[in-house]
Amino acid sequence: MKDLFLKRFLFYKDLGDKTFSQLSESEVLWQFNTESNSVATIVKHISGNMISRWTNFLTEDGEKSWRNRDAEFENDITSKAEMLEIWEKGWQVLLEALKQINEHNLQKTISIRGEKILVVDALLRQLAHYPYHIGQIVFIAKMLKDKNWQTLSIARNKSGEYNAELLKKSMPEEIRGNSSPVCFAKSDEVRDEYKTELE
């Protein structure tokens, strides 16, 4: 279970890393308007949450007294290098915390803002929270880069090719010749469950 959580968290970290690699210093600091957050500010919030939630998470409340959440939304980061340092610091705390998780303490009760929750629930909450903000980062980046954006997922109009490649890798050699779930491999015969009364 721990390895699964680690895999999912790292997947979204990778999305963030690949997005940052496409952005210039001015772009990570850009704000659409005063009510919007820059990429750098979103990073500061994600990191602040990670450090608070996962520092001594088994023995201390996840909302630390020293955390200043409101300050996380002040657009005061001055460089891309500073932003990346803050990003990595938060992930370091989270990844170190994940090393402490095992099958026994997944069901242990911890607290966040005084609310009692299970460790596994805390993980699930943050596995929704961090991707939510990383998605915002990707969206901002796509707007900024426009046609110069390098996709992080399946390229537009390339779904068929992508699926075919996955099938080649995952399906046994003998059924690669016919990847349809409706017909038998290398045959035009329709499976019984897909036959209609008109046939």
Task: Give a verbal description of the structure.
- With 199 residues, the protein is mostly helical.
- It has 2 domains: 2-148, dinb family like domain (Four Helix Bundle (Hemerythrin (Met), subunit A), Up-down Bundle); 159-194, no CATH class.
- The chain contains 6 helices and 2 strands.
- It has helices at 2-20, 25-28, 39-54, 80-99, 119-145, 159-170; strands at 109-112, 115-118.
- The chain has a two-stranded antiparallel sheet with strand order 1-2.
- Strand 1 and strand 2 (115-118) form a beta hairpin.
- Helix 1 runs antiparallel to helix 4 (80-99), helix 1 (2-20) packs parallel to helix 5 (119-145) and helix 3 (39-54) runs antiparallel to helix 5 (119-145).
- The radius of gyration is 22 Å and the shape is flat.
Question: What's the SSE blueprint?
Answer:
Layout (H helix, E strand, L loop, with lengths): L1 H19 L4 H4 L10 H16 L25 H20 L9 E4 L2 E4 H27 L13 H12 L29
Helix pairs in contact: 1-4, 1-5, 3-4, 3-5
